[in-house]
Amino acid sequence: MSTAATYAPTALKTGKIRVPHFVRGRLVWGEDTEYLSRDFGVPFVTPRLELDELFVPRTSPGPAFDAPVAEIIDFLVETAQHLTLEKNAYLQESLEMTLRVSALPRRIIENTFRRPGQFLTREALEYRIERIFGGPELLDGWVEHTDPNGRVSRVRAFPPRLVHMLAGNSPSAAMTSIADAALVKAVNVFKMPSADPFTTVAVLRTMADIARDHPVLQSMSAVYWRGGDAHVEGVLYRSQYFDKLVAWGGGDAIANAARYVGPGFQLISFDPKVSMSIIGREAFASEETLREVAELAAADATIFNQDACVAARHVCVEGDVDDVDRFCALLCERLGSDRAFASAVGPKPPADIREAVDGLRFLEPGYRTWGDYDGRGLVVRSPEPVDFHPTNKTVNVVPVASMLDAVAFATVATQTVGIYPTHRKTEVRDRLATAGVQRVVKLGSAFTGSIGNPHDAMYPLHRFVNWVVDDDA
Amino acid sequence: MSTTTTPRDTIEALNERFQQRRQQVPVLAKRAEAEGITGIRGREDLIPLLFPHTTYKSYPEALVSKGQWAQLNRWLDSLSTYRVDVDVTGVENIDDWIARLETGGHLVSSSSGTSGKGSFLNKTKRDRETSLRNMLDGLAETGIRPRRSWHVIPVGPDTGLSAHNATRDLILATYSRTDGIPIPHSEGRKDHHQYLARIAAIRKAMADGTAKPDEVAAIEADGARRQQETEERLRHFAKHIVERRDEPIFFNSMFAPMFRLCEILRESGVSEGDITGENALMTGGGLKGNTLPADYQAQIFRMLNIAPARFFHYYSMQELNLRSPKCLDGRYHVPDGLLLFVLDPDGESPAPESDGQAEGRAAFFDLTIDGRWGGTISGDKIRVDQRGCPCGRSGQTIFGDIARYSDLRDDDKITCAGTIDAYVRGFVEE
Lengths: 473, 430
Description:
heterodimer, A: 473 residues, alpha/beta, Aldehyde Dehydrogenase, Chain A, domain 1, Aldehyde Dehydrogenase, Chain A, domain 2, 2 domains, seven-stranded mixed beta sheet, disordered N terminus, B: alpha/beta, eight-stranded mixed beta sheet, 37% helix, globular
């Protein structure tokens, strides 16, 4: 990719970040509307929204409806080869702009841009289609079945019309969302987050340089408007325009959008989540083991400096208080190291944590704390989960008599539970799932994962498509 | 007084208070040590030592739900000037705990947020007396004379809280005529905190997944019954107001119940102008999250014939003893003895000032506070003018449009990281 950015990322006159829109293969610049970014209130400007341009009307088939899955995979695989930060001017530009609005440091954002590679190989994409749809046939056409009464029908996983409200706490989500939307051949509008209104367009520009007229790109628009803006959402969020609202995360913007859900306009919600870890008494087998376990627990707790649903916030440890305190001390030490997706010194914990922990410091020995409010890491041991929301590398450790006791602290808001030792997952996984948990992993692996698995208790692509039947009965 | 200059003697008084309190209030000692502050040489030295209002609810909720009163004593002690060494043997619930502490001279004041978790502030008899004296002075200054010539109507629900009772009794003793409108006979609720604790407990049980549907139904029915009692109280007052429509009535109320009272009067056929007594109103604070029509104050004034000159409207909070009274030009005047800080939204450094005005998070140091450290960072967003007021008086004034930061949420923040709060619906106290 040799195309240097033709436009300077910031407008010379205003000093504000210019955010382009991507509208069905076309890049659109403009300085019509000004907004503020989520975390630092950095001003950015966007072009005016031309709602009619964003997607083809329901009266005609989507541009990619008849594109074979194999061709789409070819396109995505080729795109992935160009999504290398070092060689891609769009990603570099996006990185620089993201740095100005993101709470994460350069090194971590760079690592994030490198991440999607493993998900966007031919093998990975074909495997996912195989796992979710049993192959490309249901997406590419009508698959015939005969029922026990001899009646014949044909089913197609028909391409949907989707509006995606992207979350702003991980640039890689933009890349995977585009791939998912492409695989199901959907008509898509991506509502970009104010914390990262750049990466989605950077990926789409990369794709446009490969094949500007590709039907997949003709099906995609990525634009920004302020979440909750009734002038946009009140108009767009209708069943006549979209089948489904794909909501990545939570917050008032999603709650607001969900008000438009009704007959024919469904919500596919990746709910806001918390995660936890459960550590068995095996961790205390030796000092060395305990150090390793503390390192694994720290790895899970610090993902994106704990601004992610998969990052553990509570750790239940099987053992007596003295043992658990030894673990806490080691954990606190491990929280303070640089990792691929975490900083040794991250953003400081918010004031409410400081207030709550200052209060607990006077309640020893029932409560005990390690570390400080300097962003290196804070560990709070308490007899039951604390009232405050542990964040910015704050971990709440709760001693339990047995792993099963820890299940009581899992709720409908719990997403991932990391367990040590791995073989004891079987002891608690049914009980955790009963409580509402959706993912059980080995301790230290919260951020990795196998390909083709459910996410938030569903197969998202399966939910995206419209299951349509042609019945001869 | 501006945000940047404070008289030398005030700084000296602040330093003296700091030196004294850091020997007494453990959290202050720890905070000062962490910030490396050994003395107050200017206003800015105080900023890192101001306690956010949430400090007073920093205890683990489990201490209340599990009845660990001795531990709750230790927590309260860490924020108190005078040691909390009250025996808690036999204390069974949170109302018992508060009553027991009161016997030991700790007049614990509390309030609750929407989560139901209450804050607890240790006050002394001196704090209470200072606050009540300040109230009477403010009323007198407004022009509401301390004569026993009024019908006194404490509009809001009877909480049974000793601080509320003390205020009500003082107002009755100072202003009420002997044949005044009767205040509904109430046994005086003894379970205010317990009720709030129950709401907090059911909320937590719902979050944990252990709340049973019948428990939820019961607490919702209880809430509805309390709402009904409040409604009946308002109807009782409405009836008597109509009967004594040309006699002076002194209302003591927040705006929301006052507005509801006007609605009830209107529903029972009373029109604006029907009530002709020269009535007065004392109210502190704003709407507390209630939504009322934009002209709610004008509607209340017209219906109940309250003139601005008979309206004592002040800005204060339970963290303060002193009130900032509102003038006829609609600004709150910060009194002597109360230092106002306008901070950035995070409450960490002074908000920028331009043309003598600043906007930001309100924080205070109340020199009259006895039972605690007097420095507080509030949850309020305010605008302040350092250059005096159109009403002619000098000094700092706070504009009338005070908002709560918690009501000004960023509605465009989307993140996959959430909390159980998004999954729990309902259970807000009355």
